[in-house]
């Protein structure tokens, strides 16, 4: 669920069903849009322009543009989207079960970055599975999954925290 600045509350459900509570009229609208392909809407977040971004069980990223009241398929990421957030710089972040994390530019819907475990340690995620992300400040993001990952977007580096550094377990869900 997410609440828009006008007070409306949007909630995603199974089978691509949306419920929209309209605060001004105190009514609830049930919406089934074919763009969701009957896939469970697992995540919703709003960007700085008031548009909404949806993450589905099928791995689709769908944007509802507030200005035009239209839905657009932005990306097919191919895996369950476990978490989506909007950051302070205007990007949308999508955590997937197997394909790492995507950073999406809201202005043109392009993928600005894709973080996976392939590459040099300290420059990549610790694993493919990601379950949550939190923006700590303007440069640090805390990512959960196969260890706790801290991403510095200013220099594009990672630090990892595991049971060796005091966590009770290596896998972190949120």
Account of the 3D structure:
The chain has 174 residues and is mainly beta. It has strands at residues 2-3, 9-12, 17-22, 27-32, 41-46, 52-56, 60-65, 70-76, 81-86, 91-96, 101-105, 111-115, 130-135, 140-145, 147-152, 157-161. The strands form 4 sheets. The protein has a 4-stranded antiparallel beta sheet with strand order 1-2-3-4, with no helix packed on it. A 4-stranded antiparallel beta sheet has the order 5-6-7-8, with no helix packed on it. It has a 4-stranded antiparallel beta sheet with strand order 9-10-11-12, with no helix packed on it. It is elongated, with a radius of gyration of 17 Å.
Fraction of residues in β-strands:
over 45%
Uncertain stretches: none
Strand order of the largest sheet: 1-2-3-4
- Tell me about the largest β-sheet: 4 strands, antiparallel
Please tell me how large the radius of gyration is: 17 Å
DSSP helix count? 0
Secondary structure: helix percent: under 10%
Distance between the amino and carboxyl termini: 18 Å
Net shape = elongated
Structural class: mainly beta
How many beta-strand elements?
16
Mean pLDDT across residues: 95
Instruction: List the secondary-structure elements in sequence, H or E.
Output: EEEEEEEEEEEEEEEE
